[in-house]
Design a protein that fits this description.
Layout: H1 2-16, H2 21-68, E1 81-82, E2 115-120, E3 123-131, H3 133-142, E4 158-164, E5 208-215
Antiparallel strand pairs: 1-2, 2-3, 3-5, 4-5
Helix pairs in contact: 2-3
Length: 219
């Protein structure tokens, strides 16, 4: 009887000691793995959201430009020119505190612009600077050769895309005039050579810039 009481008391005493350091370490390790997985998933969703916003913003800007020049289907400039004007980009890209400054999903309300429209004749480019490698690759995938309406794709007027991986400078287009060169991009239909590959999106740390080129004569 005494032996049983002693054994019972011993078990109760062990239970009162709580978790061992090994048990605590295991639990903390499991919690860390769970939090890591949640963080990775959230980061991926957030990155995809920015790319989707940029994708739709570029389409909206292209439609705005087309509407502005609907009568002539021409930008009315005979050389590569920055034709960015208010109303071309989505309102949530525009810095309300600084007139004429346009950001993008990776640069919200910047002090100087990270998005531009360059025109030359019937062609114009919507440029977005300072984006992530993942965002660049997703935009290249969406605005690729097969996406052109002239090639049976879903993006009317798409004729080219260009990528640069140099660090962006706020207020200065990284691609600019070269996106709409004097010798216009082939458009009937656009050529594979007009389009960059997603493998070129390697700037890292928001150093990628992309220009999507449209031609109003085939929109």
């Amino acid at each position: 009887m005494i032996h049983n009481q002693t054994a019972t008391q011993s078990r109760i005493a062990k239970r009162k000691k709580g978790f061992t350091l090994t048990e605590i370490a295991i639990v903390l390790g499991i919690i860390g793995l769970i939090l890591g997985a949640i963080w990775a998933a959230a980061s991926s969703v957030y990155a995809n959201l920015k790319a989707n916003q940029a994708q739709q913003g570029i389409l909206a800007a292209a439609q705005s430009v087309r509407s502005m020049f609907a009568t002539s289907a021409n930008t009315n400039v005979a050389a590569p020119t920055n034709i960015t004007t208010p109303g071309m980009f989505p309102t949530n890209w525009v810095n309300p505190a600084v007139a004429g400054v346009v950001g993008n999903p990776w640069h919200v309300n910047p002090a100087a612009s990270y998005a531009y429209v360059y025109g030359n004749g019937s062609q114009f480019a919507v440029e977005v600077d300072g984006i992530s490698d993942t965002g660049c690759a997703q935009l290249i995938s969406f605005y690729g050769f097969k996406s052109s309406g002239a090639n049976g794709g879903s993006v009317p007027g798409l004729v080219a895309n260009q990528v640069t991986i140099a660090a962006p400078v706020a207020g200065t287009a990284k691609i600019g005039a070269t996106a709409v060169p004097a010798a216009a991009w082939a458009n009937s239909p656009p050529l594979v050579a007009n389009f960059s590959a997603a493998s070129g999106c390697t700037g890292g740390s928001l150093n990628d810039s992309i220009a999507i080129v449209f031609d109003m004569s085939i929109m």
